[in-house]
């Protein structure tokens, strides 16, 4: 796989600190991986000491465990329960606040003046996996590509600096290779890193994706990548692809799912599914949200909050008379069919990037690749 | 997959944020039947008019209570008055039912696809309404009546629960008095004094005076009623491509971003609510889709 990039460089492990410092100097809020609550999550970092150095994750159906390694590799883990979506499309977001006056209410549009909002700090994301790069591109289509653009997402997404990290190993639930989304980043990043540990030498191969990426790297001590470095990069990505134990065949998938909406498999999987909504919460592309209108105790102030929602809840499809998707079968079918079929009709791309989070965080270990394979091989 | 750089160029226009409601003041509340009411609103502040097309809907916000989608039921020729008719069944509509002249509501819209009335030029027009489904059809009726000469026969078939639930009764009686409109009403349950039809609205279709080979049909009511109405119209000879229905789903944003209104591969809020029957026929027969 050839990357669309401007040039390839290398820098030593110690330069990673300079990268974070450079970004901070350029007024970026640097978000990176760190250990919290027994998982690798994303939050603001100030230097590289908080990165999950020497840690790796083990993932399988319904299982996620961290394990200590005996080396100082920084990025030898795949994806945890969170994704970058929580920064671009926050789990809870205030849409507006309004006040009660003696006569009437103050709505934001009452004033002829445009609503002034402080421009948030620009985000720099450190450690975006190739699958998650694709997830961001998918959400860009959802939130920015339609007749209405999401103003919240638009603000938070603008001016992002993205540092992708190619995967040195495949996680137990990964299937990005079959989805064409990994394990190597090909576009959508400012710079992409590949970590190499050779004996005592610890360095990063850096692919430059944008002019800005190249400019930021000027503050770092970089060397031109040699043929040996390029060979190492290729070898690492090929090894990861070979390691990947799961796959999802997307050939003709849209019509197969549309034609098999009454397949008995939906019913049997529904008997295991707890409709807990975990899969939709950890999914990096799921975009559904609900609205909650709340008031303070005096009733003088009201706010509207937008919160992540899930098609697995009964409330999700409620209209006068009852929920449209009352059964678990209908809700599970909706989620899978949306991800892998109707998403294509709606946004011109699949809604699944093969990160495997839904398999890892499903309390009963339902595996979307297994579900699709079963339906494909036993079409009704 | 890379994102088109055009998508990422910052375009935030704070003057028009589609998530923020505009203030509208209630001019009049009219109780139509025991559980339905019509509110007339006028824009406050920066907005002077509110232009919309028949069949479109708005999101209506009651302070601190919530926001819901309701179709516009007024006359599109008069954009200075915004009219909504609804049944008081949920938290928001019940709170709305208690509101009075002078109170403020938040409005976002208009949203969604309209009834394609222009496509009916030169043909017969059949409106089929079930219950409160008459409200989203009324703007289209106003428009057809205002340009009556453009159409052939104009027929309204209206089914409701009981004679007491007949919506816009005065207006229907006025229209019925005209020589160029055919208005038929049927009720599920009759009572003493009712001399009209009894039974489901689909029973009216075989006898209604229109030429099925040259007819556009606009249907609004409960999903099951629309499904059987479309089948009956088709049986009479109306092309499925000439039948339009207005769908209902849960909606939170109305701008295609919250995911709630998905109906198969379409979003009812932005791809609908008015759909060509031939395009959603297969989905209408899928259970719990």
Would you spell out the secondary-structure blueprint of this structure?
The complex is a heterodimer of chains A (380) and B (289).
Chain A: E1 7-12, H1 15-25, E2 28-36, E3 39-44, E4 55-60, E5 63-68, H2 85-88, E6 92-100, E7 105-106, E8 122-128, H3 130-144, H4 151-157, E9 161-165, H5 176-179, E10 191-198, E11 201-208, H6 211-217, E12 223-224, H7 227-243, H8 253-259, H9 264-270, H10 278-282, E13 289-295, E14 301-308, E15 318-319, E16 322-323, H11 328-347, H12 357-360, H13 368-377
Helix pairs in contact in A: 8-11, 9-11
Chain B: H1 5-8, E1 22-31, E2 36-43, E3 57-62, E4 66-71, E5 82-87, H2 91-97, E6 104-111, E7 124-130, H3 134-146, E8 154-160, H4 169-177, E9 182-187, E10 197-198, E11 215-220, H5 223-236, E12 243-246, E13 262-263, E14 266-267, H6 268-271, E15 274-276, H7 277-284
Parallel strand pairs in B: 7-8, 7-11, 8-9, 9-10, 11-12
Antiparallel strand pairs in B: 1-2, 1-6, 2-5, 3-4, 3-6, 12-15, 13-14
Can you offer a commentary on this structure?
The complex is a heterodimer of chains A (about 375) and B (about 290). Chain A is built from 13 helices and 16 strands. In chain A, strand 2 and strand 3 form a beta hairpin. Chain A is globular and about 65 Å long. By secondary structure, chain A is α+β, with helices and mostly antiparallel strands. The mean pLDDT of chain A is about 95. Chain A has helices at about 15-25, 85-90, 130-145, 150-155, 175-180, 210-215, 225-245, 255-260, 265-270, 280, 330-345, 355-360, 370-375, and strands at about 5-10, 30-35, 40-45, 55-60, 65-70, 90-100, 105, 120-130, 160-165, 190-200, 200-210, 225, 290-295, 300-310, 320, 320-325. Helix content of chain A is about 30%, strand content about 25%. The model of chain B has no long low-confidence stretch (mean pLDDT about 95). Chain B is built from 7 helices and 15 strands. Chains A and B meet through strand 6, helix 3, helix 4, strand 13 and strand 15 of A and strand 1 of B.
């Amino acid at each position: 796989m050839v990357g669309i990039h401007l040039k390839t460089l290398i820098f030593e492990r110690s330069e990673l600190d300079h990268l974070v410092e450079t970004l901070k100097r350029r007024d970026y809020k640097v978000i990176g991986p760190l250990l919290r609550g027994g998982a690798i999550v994303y939050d603001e970092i100030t230097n590289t000491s908080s990165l999950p150095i020497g840690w790796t994750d083990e993932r399988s159906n319904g299982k996620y465990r961290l394990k200590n390694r005996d080396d100082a590799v920084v990025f030898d883990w795949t994806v945890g329960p969170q994704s970058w979506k929580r920064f671009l499309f926050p789990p809870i977001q205030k849409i507006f606040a309004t006040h009660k006056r003696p006569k009437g209410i103050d709505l934001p549009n009452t004033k002829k003046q445009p609503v002034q909002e402080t421009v948030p700090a620009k985000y720099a994301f450190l450690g975006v996996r190739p699958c998650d790069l694709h997830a961001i591109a998918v959400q860009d289509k959802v939130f920015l590509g339609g007749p209405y653009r999401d103003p919240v997402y638009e603000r938070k997404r603008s001016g992002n600096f993205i540092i992708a990290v190619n995967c040195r190993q495949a996680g137990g639930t990964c299937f990005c290779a079959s989805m064409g989304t990994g394990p190597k980043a090909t576009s959508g990043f400012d710079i992409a890193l590949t970590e190499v540990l050779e004996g005592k030498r610890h360095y990063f191969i850096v692919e430059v994706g944008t002019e800005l990426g190249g400019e930021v790297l000027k503050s770092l001590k970089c060397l031109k990548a040699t043929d040996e470095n390029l060979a190492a990069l290729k070898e690492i990505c090929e090894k990861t692809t070979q390691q990947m134990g799961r796959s999802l065949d997307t050939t003709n998938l849209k019509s197969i799912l549309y034609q098999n909406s009454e397949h008995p498999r939906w019913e049997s999987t529904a008997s295991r599914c707890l409709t807990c909504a975990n899969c939709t919460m950890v999914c990096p592309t799921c975009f559904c949200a609900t609205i909650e209108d709340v008031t303070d105790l005096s009733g003088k102030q009201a706010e509207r909050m937008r919160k992540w929602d899930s098609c697995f809840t009964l409330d999700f499809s409620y209209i006068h008379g009852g929920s449209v998707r009352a059964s678990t079968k209908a809700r599970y079918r909706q989620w899978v069919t949306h991800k892998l079929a109707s998403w294509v009709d709606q946004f011109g791309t699949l809604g699944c990037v093969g990160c495997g989070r839904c398999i890892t965080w499903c309390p009963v270990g339902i595996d979307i690749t297994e579900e699709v394979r079963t339906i494909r091989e036993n079409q009704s | 997959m890379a994102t088109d750089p055009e998508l990422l160029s910052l375009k935030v226009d704070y003057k028009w944020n589609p998530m923020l409601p505009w203030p509208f003041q209630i001019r009049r509340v009219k109780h139509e039947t025991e559980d339905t009411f019509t509110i007339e609103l006028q824009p406050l502040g920066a907005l002077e008019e509110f232009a919309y097309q028949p069949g479109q809907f708005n999101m209506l916000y009651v302070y601190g209570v919530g926001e819901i989608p309701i179709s516009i039921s007024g006359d599109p020729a008069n954009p200075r008055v915004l009219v909504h008719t609804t049944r008081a069944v949920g938290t928001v509509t019940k709170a709305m039912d208690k509101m009075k002249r002078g109170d403020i509501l938040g409005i976002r819209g208009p949203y969604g696809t309209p009834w394609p009335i222009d496509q009916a030029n030169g043909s017969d027009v059949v409106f089929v309404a079930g219950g409160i489904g008459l409200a989203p059809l009324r703007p289209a009726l106003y428009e057809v009546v205002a340009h009556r000469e453009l159409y052939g026969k104009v027929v309204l078939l209206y089914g409701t629960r009981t004679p007491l639930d007949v919506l816009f009764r005065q207006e229907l009686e006025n229209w019925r008095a005209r020589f160029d409109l055919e208005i038929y009403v049927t009720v599920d349950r009759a009572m003493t004094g009712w001399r009209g039809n009894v039974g489901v609205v689909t029973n009216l279709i075989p006898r209604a005076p229109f030429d099925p080979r040259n007819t556009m049909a606009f249907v609004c009511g409960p999903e099951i009623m629309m499904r059987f109405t479309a089948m009956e119209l088709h049986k009479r000879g109306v092309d499925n491509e000439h039948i339009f229905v207005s769908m209902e789903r849960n909606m939170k944003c109305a701008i295609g971003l919250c995911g709630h209104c998905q109906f198969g591969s379409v979003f009812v809020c932005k791809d609908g609510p008015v759909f060509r029957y031939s395009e959603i026929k297969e989905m209408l027969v899928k259970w719990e889709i």
